[in-house]
């Protein structure tokens, strides 16, 4: 819309979109650009003068409604014990609305007259107009603490489990919430933050024994705020769901689609099949089928299931448990493409030529029946000649053509040159008691790569389909790395004896040449890790900025809607684009696509951090029984406070504190990423092979401290000592001449 909207249209927009009321939001909604913004400003000013709108900061809103987040003043409890609050920002002409406080068990007590910040939900048919959830008291923002409770004579203490938090919290009598000595608890800071002595806290949740195996992932779940309990309304909605029928769908039950997953997979959201293309014009080409669970049929926009799935954003995976995005009734049953059971799906039929180039594709909403639920190991074994009972009947019609199609896609991949990282995936194996049994490198077969290539092609087809139909969607975006990160990677490469092209626009092919140089060398894993670290974080966005790592112009996630909300959005977009039903992408969802993209990008990062922290704790637990043992590794990072070492056997990352590096003072060069001894001239840099001794492993925090024994085969030298044995910290001249001398010395030692 290019015309200036009427006053009624503007008021309706503000009423329908209370969180998007800035002039910029309104201009964007009505397609107003350039000089027309001046006219929009005039209309908004008129509405303000007429009393229809009230400007607050840079936003406009209906004065007869409260904003979704408001400042309230708490009133005294009424005769029924209910707690109400008075809005302090009411500017309407009608009576002041009543706001009922909905307090959670963990919320602090509120007294009459206290001012709070609350999130409001408008309600109808009640004696109050809004329901309020406490965000925080005005002037306070209680800090959440996860730690171990230690009982004392008068109250006790909470000892935080966070690596970076070394200060205990005092829990006064009455604030223990029934916690027992040694229990894992969640607390929040109470009292003034800047008081002398220990800060105070009150316990809000008891989590149980911190040494129990289950506590490892529980710590991460609570520490990172990952929702792990489904509300009753969500479970009730899932339990009422029934299997989808054939109505409005294409019948794909005769196609021998199979699922190929890890042996311990609980859900199966993708199935595949391939056959040689009978068209003589496409000699050597294939027809590929990818069928994906139709989650959109069960999780409809605005439902309780949808709101909870949006909130979670994705499933989170730990060695001992999964925190799913959807209840088990859906994720493990109705949406899972189990063998021999009719299941609703969204499928894509793709035609490729003998070189793996996609010639065409067609999407459909169907009903399929999996011919078999296979795992990667047995499929690969069958391909290599060791055929079991499950794979035997499928060799000619399913497995052989799947590998034929994969070989064609491999040729296309080589031509495209996506980033070819080869990082060993270490799997933490737990025993029956829940403790770490071993740390193994997960085997990776062509069967894994086969499924990956099929999924990538299906994701590309989904992005292209929606783009050509001019439909909104969420792209998976991976932008090219920054010049600063490329310079840092180039330093690591040079220190390891390799080269990375300089002075040109970086492409994945340049990085692949570096990875090829390192392949098979002692620095193979280091270069792969350093290359991965140089990449930007992938994210979701309604705009298409391409996918650098995959070397693709358009890419969207379509193949895992059971565990990723982004894929559900793409499914709904396809449903709406093809007119397959009323459960497609709604106008409300389209309006908040940018918000959804930001939210699920954040939940993805939250899950990754939680998973990494959990693995760190499991590895620390495993290595705590090997304190004093010597191990080999590589320097993987340098900081002013020490060097990080990645252990070869387990892949665990440990810290060698600079205070433990002998008695001399070590100069940190952030540009060269080195530590250099002021007396011996010893240089510690990324990529060096080292031998270390495990000095300390703390399972509760995941902390691992190491003692450096040798670097590149040479024992650690010891500098001069003072009488008390403290390191000698010589004055470091930061002038240009002194810096140049040190840099030359570093280079000489590297060359030698």
UniProtKB/TrEMBL annotation:
Top-level taxon in the UniProt lineage: Bacteria
Compartments where found: Cytoplasm
Any GO MF annotation of the entry: RNA binding
Enzyme class: hydrolase
Annotated S1 motif domain residues: 628-709
Listed GO biological process terms: mRNA catabolic process
Keywords assigned by UniProt, alphabetized: Cytoplasm, Exonuclease, Hydrolase, Nuclease, RNA-binding
EC number: 3.1.13.1
Region ranges (Disordered): 716-752
UniProt keyword Zinc, yes or no: no
Role, per record: 3'-5' exoribonuclease that releases 5'-nucleoside monophosphates and is involved in maturation of structured RNAs.
Family designation: Belongs to the RNR ribonuclease family. RNase R subfamily.
The protein's name in its UniProt record: Ribonuclease R
Gene: rnr
């Amino acid at each position: 819309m290019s015309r200036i909207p009427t006053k009624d249209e503007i008021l309706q927009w503000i009423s329908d979109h209370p969180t998007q009321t800035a002039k910029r939001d309104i201009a964007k909604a009505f397609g107003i650009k350039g000089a027309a913004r001046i006219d929009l400003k005039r209309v908004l000013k008129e509405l303000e003068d007429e009393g229809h709108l009230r400007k607050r900061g840079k936003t406009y809103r209906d004065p007869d409604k409260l904003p979704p987040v408001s400042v309230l003043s708490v009133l005294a409890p009424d005769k029924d014990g209910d707690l109400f609050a008075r809005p302090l920002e009411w500017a309407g002409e009608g009576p002041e609305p009543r706001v009922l406080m909905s307090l959670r068990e963990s919320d602090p007590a509120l007294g009459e007259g206290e001012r709070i910040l609350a999130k409001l939900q408008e309600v109808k048919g009640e004696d109050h107009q809004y329901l309020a959830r406490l965000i925080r008291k005005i002037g306070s923002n209680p800090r959440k603490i996860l730690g171990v409770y230690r009982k004392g004579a008068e109250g006790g203490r909470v000892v935080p489990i966070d690596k970076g938090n070394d200060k205990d919290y005092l829990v006064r009598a009455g604030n223990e919430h029934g916690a027992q000595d040694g229990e894992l608890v969640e607390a929040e800071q109470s009292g003034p933050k800047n008081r002398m002595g220990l800060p105070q806290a009150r316990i809000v949740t008891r989590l149980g024994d911190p040494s129990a195996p289950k506590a490892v992932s529980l710590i991460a779940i609570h520490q990172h705020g990952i929702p792990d309990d489904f509300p009753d309304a969500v479970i009730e909605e899932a339990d009422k769901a029934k299997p989808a029928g054939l109505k409005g769908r294409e019948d794909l039950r005769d196609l021998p689609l199979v699922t190929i997953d890890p042996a311990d997979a609980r859900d199966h959201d993708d199935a595949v099949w391939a056959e040689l293309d009978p068209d003589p014009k496409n000699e050597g080409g294939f027809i590929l089928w990818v069928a994906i669970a139709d989650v959109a049929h069960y999780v409809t926009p605005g439902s309780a299931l949808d709101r909870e799935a949006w909130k979670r954003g994705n499933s989170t995976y730990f060695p001992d448990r999964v925190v799913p995005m959807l209840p088990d009734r859906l994720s493990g049953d109705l949406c899972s493409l189990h063998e021999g059971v009719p299941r609703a799906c969204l499928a894509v039929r793709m035609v490729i030529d003998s070189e793996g180039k996609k010639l065409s594709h067609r999407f459909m909403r169907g009903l399929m029946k999996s011919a078999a639920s296979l795992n990667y190991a047995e499929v690969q074994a069958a391909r290599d000649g060791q055929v079991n009972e499950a794979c035997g009947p499928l060799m000619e019609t399913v497995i052989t053509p799947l590998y034929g199609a994969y070989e064609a896609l491999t040729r296309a991949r080589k031509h495209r040159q996506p980033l070819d990282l080869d990082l060993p995936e270490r799997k933490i194996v737990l025993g029956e008691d829940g403790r770490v049994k071993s740390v193994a490198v997960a085997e990776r077969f062509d069967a894994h790569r086969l499924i990956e290539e099929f999924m990538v092609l299906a994701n590309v087809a989904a992005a292209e389909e929606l783009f050509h139909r001019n439909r909104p969607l969420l792209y998976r975006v991976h932008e090219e790395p920054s010049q600063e990160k490329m310079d840092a990677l180039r330093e690591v490469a040079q220190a390891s004896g390799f080269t990375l092209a300089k002075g040109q626009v970086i492409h994945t092919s340049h990085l692949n040449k570096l990875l090829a140089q390192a392949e098979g060398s002692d620095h193979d894993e280091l270069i792969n890790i350093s290359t991965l670290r140089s990449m930007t974080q992938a994210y979701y966005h309604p705009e298409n900025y391409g996918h650098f790592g995959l070397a693709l112009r358009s890419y969207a996630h379509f193949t895992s809607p059971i565990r990723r909300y982004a894929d559900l959005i793409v499914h709904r977009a396809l449903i709406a684009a093809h007119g397959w039903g009323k459960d497609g992408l709604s106008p409300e969802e389209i309006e908040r696509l940018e918000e959804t993209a930001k939210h699920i990008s954040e939940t993805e990062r939250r899950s990754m951090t939680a998973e990494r922290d959990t693995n760190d704790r499991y590895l620390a637990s495993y290595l705590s029984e090997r304190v004093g043992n010597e191990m080999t590794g590589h320097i993987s990072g340098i900081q002013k406070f020490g060097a990080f070492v990645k252990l070869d056997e387990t892949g665990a990352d440990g810290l060698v504190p600079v205070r433990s590096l002998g008695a001399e003072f070590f100069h940190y060069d952030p540009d060269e990423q080195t530590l250099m001894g002021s007396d011996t001239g010893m240089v510690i840099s990324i990529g060096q092979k080292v031998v270390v001794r495990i000095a300390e492993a703390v399972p509760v925090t995941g902390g691992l401290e190491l003692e450096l024994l040798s670097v590149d085969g040479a024992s650690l030298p010891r500098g001069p000592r003072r009488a008390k044995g403290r390191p000698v910290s010589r004055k470091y001249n930061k002038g240009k001449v002194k810096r140049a001398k040190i840099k030359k010395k570093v280079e000489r030692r590297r060359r030698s």
